[in-house]
Design brief:
The protein has 275 residues and is α/β, with parallel strands linked by helices. It has twelve helices and six strands. The chain has helices spanning 9-19, 35-51, 68-71, 92-102, 114-127, 161-168, 175-182, 197-203, 210-213, 221-229, 231-241, 265-271, and strands at 4-8, 56-61, 105-108, 132-135, 149-152, 158-159. The longest helix is centred in the N-terminal third of the chain and has 17 residues, at 35-51.
């Protein structure tokens, strides 16, 4: 069956927008900044051709109200992003038009984060017998790594479950437990003070999860006390980090057929009369 290449659309858009920050790409009249859309289409084309030419591409974007559900659990979740520079989002309509012109499926669910959509697509594809490559720079997607799912990072390195275990000393299934303890600054999740990656991995050694940590006898000393004192919040952070693999997608956007090689980014922008 045709392998699936899922793409973290917002990650790629921001990377494209800021990756060319020293030399902006504009329309001929100088009225439109095309850096985001040009970079997005160019990087996607190269990634497809070089890393997954026999795959079908599906791009996933965050919905407009994506973080709302998790923010009901923790008001601080992604709260620090409100003041961030979101100039890249101005390119999103052009990116979607470019994907449509190239015949590439994309998906955006208003009330859901793209990570959960990516997780659901991966689970659905694996259930149907397909293999999946997920292109992203978001480390929370490492929890999806499995025998039939690999994570492709921006450096185009494929990350397998063995790679996750070797580098972080936890399994992909333990990733939400691990990050709840250590924290995730990108999502404004503080973690437990004084607990870094080494301590967290030691506490979770042997594949145990947070549910078993309290009774494991491993929570000793000041760090153990800090975890016990923060326990309710740690469990909340774990649940926030854990991806939902069973979203109602309203239909599978994939066709099961390989995506033909994309036209060059410049050609797509020319066809859309964006130059």
């Amino acid at each position: 069956m045709t392998p699936l290449l899922t793409v973290d659309g917002h990650h790629l858009l921001y990377r494209s927008w800021w990756g060319f920050s020293q030399r902006r790409i504009t329309s001929r009249d100088g009225d439109r900044d095309l850096t985001g859309v040009f970079g997005f289409l160019a990087i996607l084309r190269k990634t497809h051709l070089e890393m997954a030419p026999d795959h079908e591409i599906v791009v996933v974007f965050d919905g407009e109200n994506a973080a709302a559900t998790r923010q009901t659990r923790d008001a601080g979740y992604k709260a620090d992003r409100a003041d961030a520079d979101h100039s890249a989002i101005r390119s999103l309509p052009m990116v979607k038009d470019g994907l449509d012109a190239a015949g590439i499926a994309w998906l955006e669910l208003d009330d859901h984060e793209g990570d959960d959509v990516l997780a659901t697509l991966a689970r659905t594809a694996v259930d149907s017998g397909r293999t999946v490559t997920c292109y992203t720079g978001d480390r929370d997607l490492l929890q999806l790594a499995a025998p039939r799912v690999t994570i492709l990072n921006p450096a185009r390195h494929r990350i397998t479950p063995t790679d996750v275990l070797t580098r972080h000393r936890v399994t992909p299934a333990q990733w939400p437990d691990f990050r709840a303890l250590t924290g995730d600054p990108s999502d404004n999740i503080p973690g437990v003070r004084g607990v870094g990656p080494k301590t967290a991995a030691d506490l979770l050694a042997g594949g145990i999860h947070l549910d078993h940590l309290l009774d494991s006898g491993r929570l000793s000393g000041s760090r153990g006390q800090a975890i016990a004192n923060t326990w309710t919040r740690v469990l909340t952070w774990r649940d926030i980090i854990r991806l939902d693999q069973h979203l109602p997608l309203g239909g599978d956007p994939s066709t099961g057929n390989p995506t033909p090689a994309m036209p060059r980014a410049a050609a797509i922008l020319e066809d859309l009369k964006l130059w």
